[in-house]
Write a structure and sequence with these properties.
The protein is mainly alpha-helical and 224 residues long. The chain has helices at residues 7-15, 30-36, 40-48, 63-69, 73-81, 96-102, 106-114, 129-136, 139-147, 162-169, 172-180, 195-202, 207-212. It has 13 helices and no strands. The two termini are 40 Å apart. Pfam families: Ank, Ank_2.
Amino acid sequence: AVWLGFKEMARLLIEGGANKNVGNRDNNTPLNLAVSKNDIEMVKLLLEKKVDTEIANTNRDVPLIVATWNEYIEIVSLLIDGGANKNVKNRNGDTPLHLAVSKNNIALSRLLISKKVDMNLKNDKQDTPLTVASWKGYLPIVSLLIERGADKDIANSDGNTALHLAVFHCSADLVKYLITMGCSLNFRNNAGYLPSDVAVGNCPAVLPLFAHGVANEPLPLVIY
């Protein structure tokens, strides 16, 4: 009934005593199925009936992870408001915010931050959402995270901070922004390199930013 979108039939079955958290062969519960189909009304019904929001399928994905990965922003909001663990992790240790950032989805990232998710949780590679955004060169998301309070100097498993990663990416605007926001210039990664050392071999164009600072440089325009 859920897979076919038959909302009233699903209601009758649940009210008649059917197991509302039963899983199929992939251990997808009715809620996971409704989420995967982006069936907002069915999700509302199932949450109204107090289904378990934390049952993972065989891929170890709970409904909130499925909704975030598919960028179903309204369902993400419904699930969190319905009590889903907003900091839940997938099999790679990624939280919903990691996934929204990796998709470069500003609106979804903003929603999750508004729901007070933990912005500094690390995945299995010890990356935070900020280091993911910096590695990918997503300046608007980097700006959003920092301005909402993310730790700007936290390092990943290689000891690289957001600034190291921006230099690796060779994004002058991103490097300029991070320096302007006060990211540490003196943090050494596991190989012993400062961000400026990384610039020598990867992005010499940004070296003047380290040598002279950015006090007189205009901030890059960030729109999100």
